[in-house]
Amino acid sequence: MAETKYRRVLLKISGEALCAAGATGIDGREVQRLAEEVKLVADLGVQVCLVVGGGNLVRGSVIAKDSPIEESTGHYMGMLATVVNALAVQDTLESLSVPTRVQSALAVDTVCEPFIRRRAIRHLEKGRVVIFASGTGNPFVTTDTGAALRASEVRADVLLKATKVDGVYSADPVTDPTATRIERLTYNEVIDRRLGIMDVSAIDLCQRSGVPIIVLDLKKPGNMRAVVLGEGVGTLIDAG
């Protein structure tokens, strides 16, 4: 078995990663593709946990706009959407013979476990992929911050932030052909330059906990596995 750089990783994906480009809802083919990437890493013996967003189904701040729905209620609706996504990922992973558990910050005990830190760590130690749903269980807190919190709680070696491009660039690579990928940034550079990679609160929490972040393109087959093997994929964010 190949030697890996990281023993325990947390992957943060948006809800949009589970649907086709420009669409909403859940696309089974996209979920299958994600599950196959996770399996490649789990098969290396690496402990994997995930935080999944819910924007493909519900965006709390958007649904509450110009409606009688309070924004806090909209955020709870978004948290429940992440449970739906987590269950989709769970079933798809298990169809590939990858054992999983879903843990939710909101009580939904008919379909998943409550989040219990020690139990989550025990699942990881037993080789199960743990999918964290419902963010932190609080409104007005993004899943980016939820991912940073869970990565800190389970003592992840790295937080993998999946985006549409393979790292952080000097300019928008879609519109600027001269844009170049930045291989490494410090937490403070990301915050001071307001690069918008993750919420400032998420970056700050990772900095305080000492959890490095790697920004990568999960759409490229094998990228997550390459990161775990230390092949220099994406952009590394750490203390420098």
Shape: globular
Question: How large is the share of residues in beta strands?
Answer: 15-25%
CATH topology: Carbamate kinase
Characterize the main sheet: 9 strands, mixed
The CATH class turns out to be Alpha Beta
Number-wise, the strands total: 11
The run of helices and strands is EHEHHEEHEHEEEEHHEHE
Task: State mean pLDDT (0 to 100 scale).
Answer: 94
Query: What structural class is derived from the secondary structure elements?
Result: alpha/beta
Q: What's the CATH H-level homologous superfamily?
A: Acetylglutamate kinase-like
What is the architecture at the second tier of CATH? 3-Layer(aba) Sandwich
The DSSP helix count reads: 8
Instruction: Domain count, please report it.
Output: 1
How does this model look, in words?
The chain has 240 residues and is α/β, with parallel strands linked by helices. 45% of the residues are buried. It has a single domain, classed as Carbamate kinase, CATH 3.40.1160.10. It has helices spanning 28-42, 60-63, 71-95, 117-125, 143-153, 187-192, 200-209, 223-228; strands at 8-13, 47-52, 100-104, 113-114, 129-133, 158-163, 168-169, 181-182, 184-186, 213-217, 235-238. The radius of gyration is 17 Å and the shape is globular. Helices cover 36% and strands 19% of the residues. Strand 1, helix 1 (28-42) and strand 2 form a beta-alpha-beta unit. The strands form two sheets. The chain has a nine-stranded mixed β-sheet, with helices on both faces. Helix 5 packs parallel to helix 7.
